[in-house]
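User: Hi! Is it possible to get a structure for several chains at once, not just one? Here's what I have:
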Amino acid sequence: MEFFIISMLNGLSYGLLLFMLSSGLTLIFSMMGVLNFAHASFYMIGAYFGYTLNQFLGFWPALVLAPVLVGLLGALFERLSLRKVHVYGHVPELLVTFGLSYVVLELVQLVWGRTAVEFVPPEMLRGPAFTLVTHSQQGMDWVLGAAPAAMCQTADAAVRIVCSPFPATRAFMMVIALLMLVSLWLLLTRTRIGLVIQASLTHPDMAQALGHNVPRVLMLVFGAGTGLAGLAGVIGGSTFVTEPSMAATVGSVIFVVVVVGGMGSLSGAFLASVLIGVIQTFAVAIDYSFLTLARDMGWTLSAAAQENTLAKLTVSQVAPILPYLFLVLILIVRPKGLLGTREG
Amino acid sequence: MSQAVYRFKPINVGRWVIWSLFALLMLVAPLLFTSNLSVTMLAQMGIAIIACLSYNILLGQGGMLSFGHAVYTGLGAYVAMHALNAATAGTLAIPVSLLPLVGGVAGMGFAVLLGYVTTRKSGTPFAMITLGVAELVFAMSLMFSEFFGGEAGISGNRVVGQPFFGITYGPQIQVYYLIAVYTFVSVAAMYALTQTPLGRILNAVRDNPERVEFIGYNTQRVRYLAFIIAGFFAGISGGLATINFEIVTAEVVGAARSGGYLLFTFLGGATFFFGPIIGGILMVIAFVLLSELTKAWLLYLGLIFLFMVMYAPGGIASLIMMNLRVAKYGKLRQIWTSYLGLGLTALVMLAGAGAMIEMVYHLQLNSALGDQVRFMGMTLNARGLDSWFGAAFVMLTGLGLFELARRQYVHEWGEIQEEIEKEIKRREMTV
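Assistant: Yes, the chains can be modeled jointly so their relative placement is included. Here is the combined structure:
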């Protein structure tokens, strides 16, 4: 049971991190029709900016400043490069962001080196947020923070106690992501700028005719989207590892999220992020293969079947490809994505 | 009735000349560049040309931006390698010369299988799905080590069976000529494809899928067919790579390889048939020579790509064709001084920027070797203020002069284009 709760929370927090990234990507896509291939690169820049600012100013100023800087860079890129390419159509727009991802990767390696840097979260977030204590006789209990050592051990051999801590960084990640989700929703539906954004999304010509500067709105959206990626970068970088390959590992997964959720659907992106986060986290933790299943079920397999690679693969080994299998499955069963409305 | 219409079909002299020159060039190239390195590079160029051209069936002719083309070259290479090993073991009677076809059929088979899912969509979703499929195959390649050989990959020996007229494929030059023959035939076949009804309707699907639907074609099926053909040629390229390198590792299906095909096809020029040929040649030069020259080559490559997308989306081929048009009207004389100015100022700017980039790389990677950096015959001090100041000064001077030269060039270019337009109108009037 405690395995289930902790895995579920881990999966949720990972899914929410994915949503922080995919929300910006979806927003940019639905506004401008541009799939920002370099979105994960902005995530990486956010992590590295956070790392550097953390050294000079501390974690909390870095958490605010790094996303702002990343957002400014994003807006600058939109203004100087993407807007020029806009006239050529969508494929060159995708290509220009693809080129940017190469340049960013090399620049990051140039400035911060090719190995991982040590980006430690502040003292407050280092320990566990809470600890689940499972007592084989008294049932389950939970303690805020780390459980005292006395609770986790017992002299009685018949009693089994398991303490499973849940890291504070992950809890923090969930809190930030939820805050961001709510404020994004409020911004889009309750404020004037949000209404202008929605208007520019569906009727750009009309919004322009009413005197709104639509290109500037697009620049703002791009800046905000990359800024969100930067925020995710600071949190993701301090929770996981800050290294040059971090963009590639998360990059293809968020594209899967956006397609599975339905292109341009924010709620779809949320659903798909959480789903994929949970599925992947559970799969990594399950060390189970077809072979062990057969053994548990009491089937006897031939010697050839026992040596079969497919049968020997455990679920945790298959975990890295699950999002992509999910993608293929969704495309066959429901081509517009989980909550998507547009076809093609 | 249509049979009765007389159609004038002259022999296209220009086309015959160009194709003969192409064949001749491939024939004599290894005789001119005889060193081991250059023959190896020429062989790799042939492989890259086929791969980039097959990629261009998707990107240039079909408007399908694929991030996973290496899946088909790579899987073709793997299947060809297994066929080669089976031939060595004696379980499969197949001459080495036909291995690329095995790779081609394999690439086609995988394209039939995976393309069914990917070509259901076009445009941006297509691009993302190809990316997902590429990741899927790459992740699988580390999972099934029986087929993919795990981290080490699988290797074979191309010298199999009895020599045929003295051809054993032991020496590299024989392999080169095998690759040259395959390259020529594949290039010709892919050119022929652009002239077929399928090739034409593929262009229409790229330009206006809605109208194609209206005249009664299924765009999805057209994309699927094009995808399968592209997969076939990609597989041939993979099979040739198997014979050439005698080893296949998991990185041949990796994302970096797919990105490389995209990058260089685009740099060469996706809008013209011969663009990817330039791209393939550049790819080998960049991977073999540029990577030796500087550690920062990926950065330079990325920057070139960015500027190319922004300022010349037709690639190098379009630049050549635009200047050919200028030359055709005899205007090249007016503008060549501007080109000279542009080239020189760009060189000054790049020298400054390059010096700074190399110094940063030096500080980052091998600062243990001291602070001296050798750059274009000069010795720079990576920690010295004067080196940095000098490099920055050179770059900024170059940048300023380049901007001046660029304005002059843009002005002259516009004038020449206007003159050419007038000239064309005048000729039309006289006719």
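Chain A touches chain B through 48 residues (CB under 8 Å). Chain A has 17 helices and three strands.

User: Great, thank you!
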